[in-house]
Amino acid sequence: MPLSLDGEALRLKDDDDVAVALRPLAPGEQVRFPDRTIAVTVAVPSGHKLAVRAIEAGALIRKYGQVIGRAVAPIAAGEHVHVHNVEGTRGRGDLAEVTP
Amino acid sequence: MSKTFQGYRRANGTVGVRNHVLVIPSVMCANHVVDRIGRAVPDVVTVTHPTGCAQVGADFEQTKRTMAGFAANPNVGAVLVVGLGCETNESKALTQEIAARGQRVEVLGIQETGGTTETIARGIEMARGLVAEAAAHQREECPVSALILGTECGGSDGFSGITANPALGFASDRLVAEGGTVILAEVPELVGAEHLLAARASEPVAAKLYEMIERVEARARAMHVDMRYGNPTQGNIAGGLSTIEEKSLGAAYKGGSTTLREVVEYAERPSERGLIVMDTPGQDIEQMTGMIAGGAQVVVFTTGRGTPTGSAIAPVIKVATNSTMFEHMRENMDVNAGTILDGTRTLEEVGDEIFDWIVDAANGRQPAAEALGFHDFAINRIGPSF
User: Fold this and answer.
1) Which pLDDT belongs to residue B299?
2) A94 touches chain B (CB under 8 A)
3) B52 CA to chain A: closest CA distance, Å?
4) Contact B225/A93, CB-based, under 8 Å?
5) Residues B176 and B331: beta-carbon distance below 8 Å
6) pLDDT value, residue A99
7) Distance CA B107, CA B87 (A)
8) From CA B20, how far away is CA B18, in angstroms rounded?
């Protein structure tokens, strides 16, 4: 589990697209991981997710090394990843075809 | 040598961690009488509910199974059923079902007795008699392998899957290693994590798990809804969880890492030991009631937002996912898994504290929800009232 060098964010699996903020993160802060440094672009509340790499619209997003959803817009590294730019891929009865 | 605790050995071979006398209505029309008996006889526990009439088929069967299983939980030493007289869930038939499970039970009907006041008076007398009778039961040494642990998370946040749930999973693994049983439930909150559990199960068990997951998604399709905002809830989302998959992946940690042995229906008693999945909704009270009706004597409940829920008959141990909420809702919490994030304790140390709490609670130690006198009870309905 790579913790950022200053302990403010946790990337649960090495290849995850997101890290979890362990305290509120403010725009302009630098989050240093062993393999990269991420500049926070918007406020990320504690317990919420931060993109650690650019994610294309439509791409699957991974946390815990598993798929947690799909990006509905392009997400830049350092952005807040949440319901405004991620949709679930499961339990989506709203996408079911309406039978006549 | 297996770890032991001081429990109540029941005639049917099960082991209780409490010795309650329970007064339960067979139908909502008897709630008032049950309530009054409970106020007059403080040594009994009571539950009330809005079910038991104008129900049919699988929905009725599930309601009856839940009431019978709950009343026959080994934490209960004796039961008084109060019915009305004209209900679908006939009180005498329910009583027979409870007795068939090896429980000491008596029954009282409001119409047969002749009205509210007389039924309350008779009920008080019967309840006092059952309390005196149950007092004869004594604690004796029992192996922790007799324990069925219900695991639950409610009011989850972005820390649930990092702190409290993995720590509970560590305790779950310890209980299974001792020969005990652990129930992982809230099947809608396994959607997106089912493949991880299925990989630890035999083919027929995995197939049944996938079938239960499909039922959840089929319900969402039938209603043409996105599960999101219903589950994860607004509070989960405020806490940082974005999708049901994300919530599920964190929730599944509660069960630990052992082989999934069996998948059971709501309120069904497991026939295997080890890790079990029970089909309950994510709604906290319905889930807790289902697990206890399935035989769980102790529940561990993790929470990020702060959920006070407790049962009338089983100790429910609260584990906070973060230190801020733990301090803010101190009177409702028992264990602080936020210390893992604070760097003051390891996940294993918190897992050991949870395991010790389970054994202590089995020995009689009261967690917060029990000391505060909670008696939450709700039965999961799977059909409409007719």
Assistant:
1) 98
2) yes
3) 31
4) yes
5) no
6) 62
7) 14
8) 6
Using CA atoms, how far apart are residues A2 and B279, in angstroms rounded to an integer?
Answer: 35
Q: List the domains of chain A with CATH numbers.
A: 9-95 (2.30.130.110)
Q: How many angstroms separate the CA atoms of B338 and B255, rounded? A: 19
Q: Tell me which chain B residues have a C-beta less than 8 angstroms from the C-beta of A63.
A: 246, 249
Determine the average pLDDT of the residues in B169-181: 98
Residue B188 structure tokens = 């809608």
Burial bucket for residue B344 (CB in 10 Å: 0-12, 13-18, 19+): exposed
Q: Which amino acid is at B25?
A: P
Element (H, E) at A19: strand A18-21
Which residue is closest to A60 within chain B, CA to CA? B245
**Rounded-to-integer distance, Cα A23 and Cα B247, Å:** 20
State pLDDT tens for residues A33-79: 999 999 999 999 999 999 999 999 999 999 999 999 999 999 999 99
The Cα of B270 is separated from the nearest Cα of chain A by a number of Å equal to 27
pTM of this prediction? 0.97
Cis-peptide into B270, omega within 30 deg: no
The conformation of residue A7, written as its DSSP 8-state character, comes to S
Q: Say if B242 is an interface residue toward chain A (CB within 8 Å).
A: yes
Q: Contact at 8 Å (CB) between B17 and B362?
A: yes
Residues 6+ apart with CB under 8 A from B355: B170, B171, B174, B175
Q: What is the pLDDT of residue B230?
A: 87
Q: Across the interface, which of A12, A47, A88 has its CB nearest the CB of B244?
A: A88
- CB half-sphere exposure, A43, CA atoms < 13 A: 2
Q: Do B150 and B288 meet the contact criterion of CB atoms below 8 Å apart? A: yes
> Which of B34, B166, B137 lies closest to B91, judged by CA?
B34
Helices (H) and strands (E) in chain A, counts: 0, 9
Strands B316-320 and B335-336: parallel
Contact B340, B27 (CB under 8 A): no
B222: closest chain A residue by CA: A93
Nearest residue to B272 via CA among B261, B256, B258, B257? B261
Asked if B192 has any chain A CB less than 8 Å from its own CB, the reply is yes
Contact between B297 and B15 under an 8 Å Cβ cutoff? The reply is yes
Q: CA angle at residue B228 from A74 to B219, to 5 degrees?
A: 130
Dihedral (CA of B242, B239, A51, B163) sign: negative
Q: If pLDDT is split at 50, 70 and 90, which confidence band does A96 have?
A: confident
